[in-house]
Design goal:
With 416 residues, this protein is of the alpha+beta class. The protein has 2 domains: 227 residues, Metal-dependent hydrolases (TIM Barrel); 117 residues, Immunoglobulin-like. The protein contains 6 helices and 19 strands. The strands form 2 sheets. It has a 15-stranded mixed beta sheet that branches. Strand 6, helix 4 and strand 7 form a beta-alpha-beta unit. The longest helix is centred in the middle third of the chain and has 12 residues.
Length: 416
């Protein structure tokens, strides 16, 4: 059985490894805006420099985790009796996570995260990669810090109300990854996006509230900023040993808890640095929960049947057609119908492909990136959400959003 977008015929056929090919006609679209208003503009990029070749697509593996989790070291979590470090890490292991970032609010301890969260005797694991970090909590918004080893977080906290240029220099000195949290809303990110490496485009199980965060992400991408989109549950509560002790706030864990959503990273080794590097480089996708399928997005530059790029990668366009592949890997809902939404250079939907459930399900489409301007492609997948029994009410908040990819980039200046 061969599936196509409704009303069109497949441009090629075939079945490989129990997968389902979806053919697409050749499409064109607007290229990402570039500064080309006049020839003597000194900021017009006429020729980008050398772009490093992408890392191997085969020498690596996927790890899943949560990049925004609070414990009792965030004082707004202390009305719960259960969100201790030990229970938090134990739960993450139980749902198969490979890494986690405990991001307690730094303002609750005046920046002294090292003697609170990191000093907790239960901040340790033989199986989970524990990132060092915190939620940088300021009057101009919140951001998460991620690092593979301890760093001087106090320094970043102390400059939180200074000018962006000073904050940026301290962040660079510390060598940490800074990510903009929930950029729209009560605690919107009010700093320069030139300071950050990534954006929290999917915060909590409540998917609809992230629409404007996605818009900001696309604005930054269209302007030439190669920023990673990531997820984070932002959970503050935990499950109670005794349900009778549950407070109204505590009951929220049935709707939003660790893994809603889940962030996946493609790493070359099982280390904290590999996780941070993958996050910085954009080899990242996000799924609605830890049991849901992972979105994989790749590109074949020369039509030899071998994928040359994956999400997060950047290359110069050759001015020739490129074949793109979107794959769902993992636990899909039997008989479920899925839709791939493709976005090119903006938040506006460019095209959609209809899918049905199957083992190794994937879709392919072809387009020719501009050989002159920046171009990027990213995808989301909608359909039935794979059940998350421990957090069963989360599916109501996620709606039909199954997962999203990071972009594949063409002609993005690495020195921008």
């Amino acid at each position: 059985m061969f599936l196509t977008k409704k009303g069109t015929a497949p441009s090629f056929t075939g079945m490989v490894c129990a997968g389902v090919f979806v053919g697409a006609a050749f499409f064109t679209g607007n290229d990402a805006f570039a500064q080309r208003d006049r020839k003597d503009n000194p900021y017009t990029k006429k020729e980008i420099g050398t772009i490093a070749p992408p890392a191997s697509l085969s020498q690596g593996f996927w790890l899943k985790g949560d990049l925004h989790v609070h414990t009792v070291h965030s004082t707004d979590s202390r009305d719960s009796v259960t969100n201790t470090m030990k229970k938090t890490l134990g739960y993450a292991r139980s749902v198969g996570m490979g890494f986690i970032a405990i991001t307690d609010h730094d303002n609750h301890v005046r920046g002294d995260i090292a003697h609170n969260t990191w000093a907790d005797p239960d901040f340790k694991s033989d199986s989970l990669i524990l990132l060092y970090g915190a939620e940088w909590t300021t009057t101009r918004g919140h951001g998460n810090v991620f690092a593979a080893k301890p760093y001087n977080h106090q320094k970043l906290y102390d400059v939180r109300d200074q000018r962006d240029v000073l904050i940026g220099s301290v962040k660079k000195e510390l060598g940490v990854h800074l990510s903009a949290n929930h950029p729209i809303g009560k605690d919107h990110f009010g700093f320069s996006y030139d300071m950050v490496n990534s954006i929290e485009v999917w915060n909590s199980a409540v998917w609809p509230k992230n629409v404007e965060a996605i818009m900001i992400w696309d604005d930054m991408l269209s302007s030439g900023r190669k920023l990673t989109g990531r997820g984070g549950s932002d959970t503050h509560r935990g499950f109670s040993d005794n349900p009778a002790e549950d407070t109204p706030e505590n009951k929220r864990v049935r709707y939003n808890y660790i893994g809603t959503p889940t962030t996946w990273v493609f790493v070359k080794e099982r280390t904290g640095q590999a996780v941070v590097d993958a996050l910085t480089n954009g080899r990242v996708s996000v799924s609605s929960n830890p049991y849901g399928p992972r979105v994989e997005f790749s590109a074949d530059l020369d039509n030899d049947g071998k994928m040359d790029l994956m999400m997060g990668d950047n290359t110069k366009s050759t001015g020739k057609p490129v074949k793109f592949r979107v794959q769902l890997a993992g636990n899909t809902v039997p008989g479920g119908k899925y839709k791939v939404n493709v976005f090119k250079n903006s938040s506006n939907l460019w095209k959609s492909l209809d899918l049905t459930d199957g083992n190794g399900l994937f879709a392919e489409f072809t387009d020719m990136p501009s050989d002159e301007n920046r171009t990027y492609y990213r995808v989301t997948i909608e359909g039935p959400v794979t059940p998350y029994p421990q957090v069963s009410e989360s599916m109501k908040l996620s709606g039909n959003m199954v997962g999203l990819s990071n972009p594949i980039f063409f002609n993005f200046d690495p020195n921008f």
